[in-house]
Amino acid sequence: MEWKNTTVVTEFVLLGFSRSWDIQLLLFVFLLLLYMATLFSNILILLAISQDHHLLGSPMFFLLGHLAFLDLCMSSFATPRALFAFLAQRQAISFQGCMAQIFFLHLFGGSEMLLLIVMAYDRYVAICHPLHYASLMGRHRCIGLVLTSWAGGLLHASVQLGFTLSVPFCGSNHVDSFFCDIPLVIKLACVDTYPLEVMMVTNSGILSLVCFVGLLFSYGYILATVSSRAPVEGTSKALSTCASHVIVITMYFGPCMFIYLSPYTHFWVDKMLSVLYTAVTPFLNPTVYALKNKKMKSAMWRLLY
Questions:
Q1: Mean pLDDT taken over the chain
Q2: Which of 91, 169, 269, 291 could serve as a FRET partner for 138 with CA atoms 20 to 30 Å apart?
Q3: Both ends of the chain: CA-CA distance in Å?
Q4: What's the CA gap between 228 and 183, in Å, rounded?
Q5: What average pLDDT score do residues 203-227 get?
Q6: Whole-angstrom Cα distance, residue 162 to residue 205?
Q7: Which residues make Cβ contacts (< 8 Å) with residue 231, sequence separation at least 6?
């Protein structure tokens, strides 16, 4: 099927969460406080790691710093604009701005998915092959893995955006969310969107599912290895750490799988799920991956006091 880009829509209208002023105000305060806390915690992590040579030289903290940067990006691609739009009472976003949100959402989201796999691999090597850790997770290897994560995210976002730009938009321009994403935007196209929905399931839904299952297996294997080698106290600590990590990645990948594996239907809960992986998870990541680590907490306290 050949689609000619006969787009006549110049802007989209983001409907947000609710028509009720009270609910809008409550969500505005919630998103504002959440965004400020996310900025503070992730910037603090970046500063603490960059100013401590011991942390910066550690593969685990090197990767954690990149995760904090991605969380800053993920929480900032749409939330500040949504907050400003509430104050200005302007719901419209330009066509170019909408496409930019789609691109950056999938760039940062795809990169973070792959980086979480890299971080799980780092923990696997450290626990299961400690004697080979220095050689397997050297600085050049870490940089290569991080660049691979960004490259994978860029490829993922480029494919998504390319398919979206190839279809014409000439009808309704109302997007039932507080930011633009493919499942909602392609429903406004003037052509049969079935090929796009298949692409989205393949490129976003299956990617999320494979990454999630891979992470579950990796943490399961790490826990099994620790329980076979360490005493009960060590096993309990590893179980606590793995459980908290699994909770966070479930909150991140769960909404993605629900939204992108079922593009043919749209539920009201999709809005709440979109907040989970774009705003809540970037706030929780520092708590789970950084604040439970004694070295990281010490570096952050030194920076603050």
A1: 83
A2: 291
A3: 62
A4: 45
A5: 83
A6: 17
A7: none
